[in-house]
Amino acid sequence: MPMSTLVNYSGDDDFYPGGSFYINPMDSGLLVSIGSCMDVYCPPRKRSRITAPYIFRENNLELEKRPSIDVLPDECLFEILRRLPGGQERSSCARVSKRWLMLLSSIRRTEICPRKSSQSLNESSKLDKELTIPVPDDIEMISAEDRELGSDGYLTRCLEGKKATDISLAAIAVGTSSRGGLGKLSIRESSSSRGVTNLGLSKIAHGCPSLRVLSLWNVSAVGDEGLFEIGNGCHMLEKLDLCQCPLISDKGLIAIAKNCPNLTALTIESCANIGNESLQAIGSLCPKLQSISIKDCPLVGDQGVAGLLSSATSILSRVKLQSLNITDFSLAVVGHYGKAITSLTLSGLQNVSEKGFWVMGNAMGLQTLISLTITSCRGITDVSLEAMGKGCPNLKQMCLRKCCFVSDNGLIAFAKAAGSLEGLQLEECNRVTQLGVIGSLSNCGSKLKSLSLVKCMGIKDIAVGTPMLSPCHSLRSLSIRNCPGFGSASLAMVGKLCPQLHHVDLSGLDGMTDAGLLPLLESCEAGLAKVNLSGCLNLTDEVVLAMARLHGETLELLNLDGCRKITDASLVAIADNCLLLNDLDLSKCAITDSGIAALSCGEKLNLQILSVSGCSKVSNKSMPSLCKLGKTLLGLNLQHCNKISSSSVELLMESLWRCDILF
Hints:
Elements: H1 3-7, E1 31-35, E2 38-41, E3 54-56, E4 61-63, H2 74-81, H3 87-94, H4 98-105, H5 122-131, E5 155-160, H6 166-176, E6 182-190, H7 198-207, E7 213-219, H8 224-233, E8 239-243, H9 250-259, E9 265-269, H10 276-285, E10 291-295, H11 302-309, E11 318-322, H12 328-337, E12 343-347, H13 354-362, E13 371-375, H14 382-391, E14 397-401, H15 408-417, E15 423-427, H16 434-443, E16 450-454, E17 477-481, H17 488-497, E18 503-505, H18 514-523, E19 530-532, H19 541-551, E20 557-559, H20 568-577, E21 583-585, H21 593-600, E22 609-611, H22 623-629, E23 635-637, H23 646-655, E24 660-662
Organism: Vitis vinifera (Grape)
Domain F-box: 72-113
InterPro entries: F-box-like_dom_sf, F-box_dom, FBXL15_LRR, Leu-rich_rpt_Cys-con_subtyp, LRR_dom_sf
């Protein structure tokens, strides 16, 4: 019946007084009777996606429901959605409901029907906006207009904690598929109750065949089925990182090996069900593998390591084996077949003896090894250390941590054998003494540039007469941190042997005095550029005055954090002599407002970073001086300065708008 007929109704025709609009009594709940001659339609509280119109007929008035697309089964809706003309349309449809999102994310690239024409879709876009249902907060949709690409030309996404869900992965798969595809995906600490499962990974596998990097950290609900999907759908995968994934076993990793021949890097950590079989498959089926890291996997043994390294096509250049149940056999394989290895890390190998390391060195296969790091391995002794020095002729960086059986003799023998050594780091090697350090410097050859000692408790400060030793003119960086026994006598001897130092780090040497540091400052001929003396409690202004006088023209960084005997006199010398200084740390020093004022008077001083944290004698009176220094400052630390008020700092922030101020 036309609307005009309704408006001009005169009452002659029967209009169903007091009757019901619905033939079906079950639908009468939608109507509320107001009077004996009128019915009013009351819609449900939850608004329908498509509002059904009234349809008036000759002898009946009824509400006819328009058919909804949601009544279609998933199979039919799948066929409709895979025929959408473009990525923007798919992204719009994915916002309608979770059901549509999950269906769209299950469509593979090969299942999408090609676009037939470029007809305008303005009307359909308007309809999409009208019909769009707000996506719940737990769905992380990616708009079609987002064009930000990763540095390698592909999109990068990271999901962590509560955001790591299957719905989020489905949204990423749909949103990125039409814009170059997802290149890097990282999932961390997914919740076990409603986090990422195999279903989520299958969505990524279907919609992101361009995935190259996948990291799964502490994802407890993903198992072999998820890796099956990744292997079948992401053949371009290059890097795989699995950490604390208890449901992933050899089967899942073998699926990756069979389907991802471009794999170049593999990291496995704390995966209790991954063992030798999968590593053998990786070694034989992934000829491009260059980096392997395995840590704390109890099922990995000698067979797995041998399978990785003994392959004829092995081009492994970076190998990390940590906390594994391997024996001397594995290290013999490394020494024989590791011809392409340039970086090797061995840590916590409790079942490897001195023989294993000795054989690895004498196998003469590590000709290209450049960097070697060994931590907490009982098999490292003086004998095996010397063997590795002889068997690795191109070794440049050596790091020994917690190797309790290495003594002075082994360290000196290694220094003599490793002719290409440029950097040596010893950490918690408590059998090494003062004589071992001095002997290594004197016998290391002409290429050693850096020496670092950390927490070596065996070093005692003994003033002994030393024979004529060869100086180490090549050493540029000396770092001795938290070695309480390393005192003035030891440092004086090191200073005489190393006249070309540029960088000196003596942090944590609370026993150091002016008498020990002054000879080093006087013997450095090239000029010091970076000096870290944090925690050296007994140093006084005399050291800073000598440093400013001897090295003021080259000094760029000076850290005096915790040197509580440093006063304003040091700041006067710094302001007058240190023209290149750009980073100065005076935290917890005994400086006052006068010292800050003197520092600000340095006409050519170009400080960029200044810290006076914990300087209890610095007050609001220093604000004008700090403002003057602020012309070049980029960072200023005023934390724990109790005599500086917050209001003064606020005014300073307004003046130094370019400077980051901590208070």
